[in-house]
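U., I forgot to send this yesterday:
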Amino acid sequence: MKVKITKIDKAELPKYPTPDKKDYEAGQENYGVSIPIDYWIIGELSYPIEENKSIRALRTERNGVKCAGLFHTSKVIKLEGNIAETENSKYQIEYLED
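Result:
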């Protein structure tokens, strides 16, 4: 299923801090931090989003730039409607038509 996943906030008690965009290098290893707020991807889910599993998607676009890769999150701890809260972040999930 094709989706757009956007980080809208950090979790209440994140395992890792959320950096400002200027302090994060997309496409590089950014050890010890989560991704910044407003980071988004478009891709195909590897499996449905469920609590107690990470979100995984085969990414085709990252922040408006074509960029193939694998996107995955920490474990989902709460799923309400189109908002998934993981151990580090809160994401808005938009299901897209193919």
